[in-house]
Amino acid sequence: MTGIVFHATERREAVVEFYRERLNATVRLEQPDCTILAFDGFLFGFCERDAADDCGILTFVYPDRDGVDAASERLGDAVVTEPRENETYDIYQCFAEDPEGRTVECQVFLDEGVDIE
Prior knowledge:
It comes from Halorubrum tropicale. This protein has helices at 12-23, 65-75, and strands spanning 4-9, 26-30, 34-39, 42-48, 57-61, 79-86, 91-97, 103-109. The protein is of the alpha/beta class. It has one domain (4-109): 2,3-Dihydroxybiphenyl 1,2-Dioxygenase, domain 1 (Roll), CATH 3.10.180. The protein is globular.
């Protein structure tokens, strides 16, 4: 089974380019006013609308700290919180913002017993 999370966007081209260029997402499907992207098993889409929604967090999970660090480097000036450990959730994470202000999180679970696949 799989699912897709869709977000309304006013700047579809810029937003899609951001996720493709900075987080290595791939285009899975182009529709008349929507683009569906994939990152590993995570499917998410952006549909052209009159107003963008920017609630929630798009979280990208990596296998290790190096993956989070590399993502942080690719995100560059979009990073708002540099990579750090979060003891509450036993994760290593960083935060960024996409071109419309959506929160983007890159993280790895530090507890090797956690398996979300």
